[in-house]
Amino acid sequence: MKRLLLAVIAVIGVVIHTTTSFERVIGGLDRDRGVFVSPTSDGGYVAVGLTRSFGEGDDDIYLVRIDATGSVLWTQTYGGPETDNGWSVHESAGGLVIAGFTESFGMGGFDCYLIRTDLEGEMQWSKTFGGEHNDRCWALLPASDGGYVLVGETTSFGSGAEDCYLIKTDAAGNEVWSKTFGGEKGDRCFSITQADDGGFLLAGQTYSEGAGDRDVYLVKTDASGNEVWSKTFGGPASDVGHSVTRTAEGDFVVTGYTTSFAIAEDDPYLIKIDARGQTQWTRVIAMEGVNHTLTGEQAADGGFFLGGFSNFGPNGANAALLVKTDGDGNLEWSRDLFATTTGQSLGYTVRATSDGGSILTGHTTVGSTGDLDLFMVKVDREGQ
Questions:
Q1: What is the DSSP string of 254-320?
Q2: Is the dihedral of CA 382, 334, 365, 104 positive or negative?
Q3: Which alpha helices (DSSP H) does the chain contain, by range?
Q4: Pairing relation of β-strands 22-26 and 148-154?
Q5: What confidence tens digit (pLDDT) does each residue in 29-53 have?
Q6: Given CA atoms 9, 11, 13, 16 in this order, what sign does their dihedral have?
Q7: Going by C-beta distance under 8 Å and a sequence separation of 6 or more, which residues neighbour residue 4?
Q8: What is the distance between the alpha carbons of residues 347 and 60, in angstroms, rounded to a whole number?
Q9: What's the CA gap between 220 and 229, in Å, rounded?
């Protein structure tokens, strides 16, 4: 009977799906920031950002691996004597791949920086991309052929003061091709996703085109990085697209913020388009004060999690912001995290998790051991 009962419990343990929520603040005595977080195949998470508490130079890339309960497994730093930042990390082909930019290595100024590690964070190789001026990469996408696609901005190449910069590599990190997009003024791309046709969709901001000060900028390419179409969204003031995510249906949702269409100051801004670039809907989420959403991802229920920051309190304090919408972009709930009247907290990247919840990373002064610390907050589907 005892053996049977244990067997029944074991079966139930497989069937019942539990949710673990946690809040972790990680860092040293100086400034440490979290920028991007990814789920890992063992049920844990890995976050990347930058650190001044540890490492070799001014800012170094900071990689933090945690388990499913939020316990720290290990941390690693990468970089040289100058400034090095990590802005994206993904598990890929039995290891981890990191994208960002470096002043310590490369051709000159800042260069795009690609690092491949094993699952323990030990570096296997690194590559730089760019010219004699400043080139930064903000996002990374593992490609279907085993290579990598990086996106960012360049002042070394292109036709304007600053252009979007798209780089394709092979599995060893060697450049296959690179492309630039933009006009005469400043144009930057912060995010990338892949379309069903093998091409890519880039999201960012443009001063060269559009209706106002700066507008949301979308560029669709084919699989070889050639532009298929580009679009802008916005009004007479400032409007920014910080991330683009592909939906389960093959459409795309752009997350950012708008001043042109805000109710008070800056409000979260969502744009849903189909694969041809046709607008399905736009949403401005009316919230009190200044609220920026920087990243978004589709939730298991078809809605969207959004991450960013909000002004909190009368003294210029900021709280990390986590927002949940339904599938049509309508607000379901929002949470201010690390909200105090004196704290400075910003959320950068939110990712949906396998239990229907989400995880957000960023940085905070609240509960930190130094100037700023990296945080990771995991919540369930209701934000708890």
A1: EEEEESTT-SSS-EEEEEEE-TT--EEEEEE---SS-EEEEEEEE-TTS-EEEEEEEEETTTTEEEE
A2: positive
A3: 2-15
A4: unpaired
A5: 999 999 999 999 999 999 999 999 9
A6: negative
A7: none
A8: 20
A9: 5
SS3 147: coil
With tokens 């200044």, the residue in question is 290
Q: Which two tokens stand for residue 241?
A: 């697209």
3-state helix, strand, coil in the chain (%, to 5): 5, 55, 40
pLDDT digit string (tens) for 201-252? 999 999 999 998 999 999 999 999 999 999 999 999 999 999 999 999 999 9
pTM above 0.85, yes or no: yes
Which is nearest to 54 in space by CA: 88, 25, 79, 37? 79
Going by C-alpha positions, the residue among 229, 341, 310 that lies closest to residue 275 is 229
Q: How far apart are CA 76 and CA 86, in angstroms?
A: 12
Instruction: Report CA 306 to chain centroid distance, whole Å.
Output: 11
pLDDT in tens, 276-328: 999 999 999 999 889 999 999 999 999 999 999 999 767 789 999 999 999 99
For residues 58-72, average pLDDT: 97
Give Cβ neighbours of residue 301 (< 8 Å, ≥ 6 apart): 327, 356, 381
Token digits of residue 70? 């939020």
Residue 102 has pLDDT above 50, yes or no: yes
347 within 8 A of 361, measured Cβ to Cβ: yes
Confidence bin at 256 (pLDDT 50/70/90): very high
Q: What is the DSSP letter of 325?
A: E
- Phi-psi bin for 160: left (phi > 0), alpha (psi -120 to 50), beta? beta
Amino acid at 117: T
* Tokens standing for residue 372: 């700023």
What the block records as the tokens of 204 is 């960012």
With H, G, I as helix, E, B as strand and everything else as coil, classify residue 143: coil
**Tokens at 301, concatenated:** 């229920």
The strand pairing partners of 347, in sequence order, are: 362
Token duo for residue 344: 């400075």
Predicted confidence (pLDDT) per residue in 151-174, tens digit: 999 999 999 899 999 999 999 999
